[in-house]
Design a protein that fits this description.
Number of strands: 10
Helix content: 25-40%
Order of helices and strands: HEEHEHHEHHHEHHEEHHHEHEEH
Radius of gyration: 24 Å
Shape: elongated
Low-confidence stretches: none
Strand content: 5-15%
Largest sheet: 3 strands, parallel
Length: about 350
């Protein structure tokens, strides 16, 4: 999706009779890329796929390790047809290792990488951060980054290569800061008692008087000082870095936030240098004035969805509807006879 948003000509190959999790019109991640059906287990279908490989800059596949090799479409066969091809492989556990062939999902890859175990409040169970860290942040985004690095290198060397994007690796990479803090002794407490995992009063979510919530991230001392002033809390009663007093300071903050409504806090905080904002849900976020002004969300055929990101001043990307005419796509690729 992100490659298509940025102007790449992406063609999706699907198994005949594929059942989609969502209707294609509502599956935002399919936007900008038409699909064709090819039975890769059929020798004729295999040759059709290799005809696409002949013309492609990049091949992306998300099977378990060795599946593409068994189909006769592995890196060796692909590079024999197209030496500059970048071969991107997306898996949970990677192409090798004791668990390489084991089934899993985002939650499992986060569990193995240590990330899931660190996302929880004190004394509570780990909380899965939806499927954003493994599937998308540590998976798809790093795959896209790796593929573009390899494409750039291929323009110099004339040779493609395999990009092994494993969600366990990506999730671990995203936690690099925490590992650094641990080694420095700044992340020494159990989950839920450290600076960024809701242990600190200045990095926490508080309930408001009408059941809404305010997110506070006042890490820097000047922002923390401004927050205290807005909350009318004396700095002597809420020292920022006395960890043993964090629980009591959190209780004090919680009582203050419960005393006013969400809308009151929005007016008071969101334009202040206090790093505090109300918490909006998926349904409310597109109507936030700032996101509305930036056009962060767009409506495509009745489906509200995030606009392409990041932004470019000369060659901007854009979210585009999913093309339904595979014939036109195949004409662009010069392989109309693919069926």
């Amino acid at each position: 999706m992100v490659l298509a948003d940025m102007g790449a000509d992406v063609l999706r190959v699907e198994r005949p009779g594929t059942d989609h999790l969502l209707p294609p019109h509502h599956d935002v991640t399919l936007r900008g890329r038409p699909a064709i059906e090819i039975d890769l287990r059929d020798p004729h279908g295999r040759e059709r796929a290799l005809s696409l490989v002949d013309r492609a800059d990049v091949l992306l596949e998300g099977f378990r390790p060795s599946v593409m090799e068994r189909l006769g479409l592995g890196p060796a066969e692909a590079h024999a047809r197209n030496a500059k091809l970048v071969y991107g492989r997306m898996t949970g556990y990677g192409q090798d290792g004791p668990m390489a062939g084991v089934a899993g999902h985002d939650i499992n890859y986060l569990a193995v990488s240590g990330v899931l175990g660190g996302i929880r409040r004190e004394g509570e169970r780990p909380l899965p951060p939806l499927n954003l860290v493994g599937d998308y942040g540590g998976g798809g985004m790093l795959l896209a980054f790796g593929v573009l690095c390899a494409v750039f290198e291929a323009t110099r060397s004339g040779r493609g290569q395999v990009v092994d994007a494993a969600m366990v690796d990506g999730a671990a990479l995203l936690s690099s800061l925490i590992h650094g803090m641990r080694s420095a002794g700044q992340w020494s407490g159990p989950p839920g008692t450290n600076m960024l995992d809701t242990g600190a009063p200045f990095y926490e979510v508080y309930e408001t008087g009408d059941g809404g919530h305010v997110a506070v991230g006042a890490i820097e001392p000047q922002f923390y000082a401004r927050l205290l002033k807005l909350l009318t809390i004396d700095a002597a009663d809420a020292p920022q870095w006395e960890r043993e007093r964090w629980p009591q300071v959190k209780d004090r903050f919680a009582a203050v936030f419960r005393a006013r409504s969400t809308s009151d806090w929005e007016v008071l905080l969101e334009h202040e240098e206090a790093c505090a904002t109300i918490v909006r849900g998926f349904g409310d976020a597109p109507s936030h004035p700032h996101l509305r002004a930036r056009g962060t969300f767009v409506d495509i055929a009745g489906v509200v969805q995030p606009q392409a990101a990041p932004r470019f001043d000369r060659t901007p990307g854009a979210a585009r509807p999913r093309p339904v005419d595979a014939r036109q796509a195949l004409e662009r690729w010069g392989v109309l006879g693919l069926g």
